[in-house]
Structures are given as C-alpha cells and as structure tokens.
Amino acid sequence: MPPSSLLALSDASLAIVPDSVVAGGGASWGLARTPDGPRLVVAPDAAPGAPPPGFVGARGERAGRAIFVGPVGEANAAVLRRSLSWLVPRPLPPGTSAGFGDRMGVATPGHVRALRAVGAPAVPIAPIFAQQSIREMSRSGRTPQAVIDDATWGAFEAGWTAGVGADADHLKTPADVDACAAAGFSFFTIDPGAFVNDRAEAAPAEELRQAFDALPWDRLESSGVSLRRSLAGRVLDVDGHRVPIDEAAVVKAAVKYGAAVAHVAMMYRHLASVKAGEAFDLEVSVDETDTPTSHAEHVYIASELQRLGVRWISLAPRFVGRFEKGVDYIGDVEAFESDIATHAAIARHFGPYKLSLHSGSDKFSIYEIAARHTRGSVHLKTAGTSYLEALRAVARVAPDLFRAVYAFSRDRYEEDRASYHVSARLDRTPEPAALASGDVAGLLDQFDARQVLHVTFGSVLTARDAAGAPLFADAVLALLKSHPEVYAECLERHFARHLRPFVRS
C-alpha cells in the first residue's frame, strides 16, 4: 500500500500522524492517535499481508486491505528499527553534530522541528536524539532501552529519515558500557572524572614528583622516562598556535590526567570487545573537573590516548570560564575564544576530532565562536534544557501544577545541587505563593530559578506520595502528551536558537 493510501485510512478512531507515514521493509508505516493512546499502524504492500516479524498487535482491515495495529512499546520499537534502517543508531558523520537530551522521552518531535527550522537535513547537523547519562537514568527512573525506544518512536512520529546516533553519556564503569551497548547505543561518552587529580594544579614540586612516580605506569604501558622523552621540550605549532611543553608541564599533565587516561584506555578496550567489530563512536569527557584543561594537558591526553591505541571522535575538555547548567556562559568571552581556538588546532593536529561542548545548552554567547574556530568540527551536547521547556509548556497550560513543581524543587535544591556545577541561590528566587498564574512561566527566564528547576528534575520525576503514587511525573507527562503542539513549539523555538549559530554558509 502506498504511504498516501495509508494516510487516506485515517479517521477519528485511527488518526494517523501525517509526518509519520513512510514506506519501507515491504510495508507502509504510520503512527496513529487513538482514544486508547498512540498506536503503530502497518499496511503490508502485498496481499493478503502478514505482520512484520516480532510485531505485537492485531490484524484488521480497512478499504479492503489488511492492516496491523499495535501498541507503542519495546517490541514494536525493535520492529521499526529492523524494518526502517534509518531509525537504527549509527556512528556520526564528520562535521557538526548535536545531542538532544530528553529526560521524559517525549521531546524528539520538537527536536526534529528545530532541526528542520534551521534547514536540516540539507544543512548538515547530525542529530543524537537518544542521549542520557547513567546518572540521569537512575535519577529519572529510566533504562537504557527506554531511552533508545522513546527516541525511536519520536523520530518515527516526526518522519525523520536522515539517520540518528544514540549517546550513552558519562559512562564510568564497564557495567555501564555493557548495559548501554546491549540497548543499541552507538556513541559512548567515557567520563574518567573520578580519576582526574585536580590537586596537580597547585601542588608543590615535591608533591608532584611523588605523584608522578606513583602513577599507574603498568596500565599506561609506559614509564616516566619514556613520557619525558616523548613530550618534554616539544613545541606544537598548529595554524599559528604555539603550545610549548616543558618538563614541568609534562609532569603536571601526567599527574592530573594520567590515571584518567589509563581508565579511558581500559573502558575503550572493553567497549571494543563488547561491540565485537561493530562500528561505534567514542567521546572522551574531562569537562566535569575543578580546573580548566590547559593546552599542554590537551596535548598530553591526545598523544597518550593515541599511543595506547584509543580511537575517539570527540573530546570535551574543561574550557576556561564556567559552563553551568541551563544558563549562558559565565566568564570572559574573549578569553574563551583564545582558549578554544588553540584547543581546536590541537584537535585538528591529533585527529581531526570534534571538540564537544558539555553542559552546552543556553551558551548563546559562545556558539558562533565555537563553530568558527572548530571549522564546524564540533559536537553540542544538551540535556536538561528540554526538561525546562517541558516545564514551560506546563506553566502555559497548568500554572498551578508548575507552581507545585517549583515549590518542591526549591525544597530539594540544596541537596540535589551537590553533583552539578551551579551557582543559583534560593534567596534570589521568589516564593511560590507570591507568583500570580500569569507570572510563573517567567521563572524559566530567571537565572536562579532556572537552575533550581534544572538540577531537581530527578527528584520531581521520582517523588511519590504516602500511598506510593507519583507526585508529579504522571501529571506532567500526561499534560505533555495531551498538548504535544505546545511542547513542540517550545522546543522548536528554543533549540532553533541553539542550532542557528552552527549553520555554516
């Protein structure tokens, strides 16, 4: 059955979403809205018609043709990926890419609208719709498979056929890798932050020497003598950017990042073993540390990872300034420009690989700078800002629900902020009772309230009342599903603003 014929079957009981209708795998496919919720509709091309292997659902007939209607769930998401190859997560192409975190699993249609608003897929910004860290999954009660499946359904609903990646973010252990590889992720972000020694930044010479001697040289498959010989006294000159590396810089870089490099190498080798020849993307993340990654330290990280046989497509250094959650860049923009220009030159020399902007949402003052100096070889990673836009939709439709979420978030903030880089203060946020219904959405544009709402997402989505029922999650999710256009409009506006500076003429 041609896709247009499938759309012609739509009625009030089976309202097929026009953007979702597509042909592939010997059938036409669409997502339908029904009184009982969304359903997958499959119309085989050939009569009498059989359901796709693994399909869960019932056979029906419309206009004399067999159709199959089934629930939106894990089994049928797998059917979609087997039948429609563009929904299978795959390694990213070179150039600009963007990760769209989605903590509630319903944001992908809005993300697709934002991409189309800036000209994609003709404009080459490769998307990752399925992106969540293990930390965020545990806080929001999701699984790796749920993250993949929700993004599959969202991309299908929106009719995105230009390919997708899937980012298992901030992985710290081999068990994290195993769980995400089994779910079908294609992009793996290794976070060795627990092994970064920030004391190296200000440690006296004798302490540095002792720490250098105590590095895990066996796991680094090297020695202090060999490292000094390969790097000390070197001057890297790339595109007019000079990075001198004396012996003191080598020692400090190794003390700060040596154990982290060893951990990344171990995780990479484990991942390569698990993937067993299947292609994948690796990102190395050292951004969640107290001190910036110097250019000499970047050279150390890249040269050592290369020596150890690690292959990566992007690296997230800790840039100068502050990349706090949910707000614009904090710091000297000119200093950032100088910093990223040299980091980008180093990435071209050792790769090329992309520079990754972590905690990248809402950093509007530095996007054009990053795109220009990386020459488009950049990955933008966002996460919680889609949750904030979900709350904006809630504020528009149900201000009393938003006010209750805000009050709860204020109560949770001091505890929940512990694992995030934020500087919001509760004494600069208004009391919930003082807010008129027409004013609540404005909180999402106020620095302190925005961060309070941002970092408390896990508590909001998992909080339960005395009877064990969810306090907010079900109500918020039901609102987003019943007002999809409101949420999609919020996401389109917000993310198009993120993406436009990365569109290169």
Question: What does this 3D model show about the protein?
Answer:
This protein is 43% helix and 16% strand. It has 505 residues and is an alpha/beta fold. A hairpin with a 2-residue loop joins β5 and β6. The mean pLDDT is 96.
Write the SSE topology.
Layout: H1 3-8, E1 15-16, E2 22-24, E3 27-34, E4 37-44, E5 58-62, E6 65-71, H2 74-83, E7 97-100, H3 108-117, E8 126-133, H4 134-140, H5 144-158, E9 165-171, H6 174-183, E10 187-190, H7 205-213, H8 217-220, H9 224-231, E11 234-238, E12 241-245, H10 247-275, E13 281-285, H11 295-307, E14 314-316, H12 333-350, E15 354-357, H13 367-373, E16 378-382, H14 385-397, H15 399-416, H16 447-455, H17 457-462, H18 473-482, H19 484-499
Parallel strand pairs: 7-8, 7-16, 8-9, 9-10, 10-13, 13-14, 14-15, 15-16
Antiparallel strand pairs: 1-3, 2-3, 3-4, 4-6, 5-6, 11-12
Helix pairs in contact: 2-5, 3-5, 3-19, 6-10, 7-10, 10-11, 11-12, 14-15, 14-19, 15-16
Integer-rounded radius of gyration? 24 Å
Which percent range describes the beta-strand content? 15-25%
Shape: globular
CATH superfamily of the largest domain: Aldolase class I
Low-pLDDT runs: none
Give me the CATH architecture of the largest domain, please. Answer: Alpha-Beta Barrel
Helix content: 40-55%
Would you count the extended β strands for me? Answer: 16
In whole angstroms, how far apart are the ends?
A: 40 Å
**What is the typical, i.e. mean, pLDDT?**
96
* Spatial order of the strands forming the largest sheet: 7-8-9-10-13-14-15-16
The top level CATH class name of the largest domain: Alpha Beta
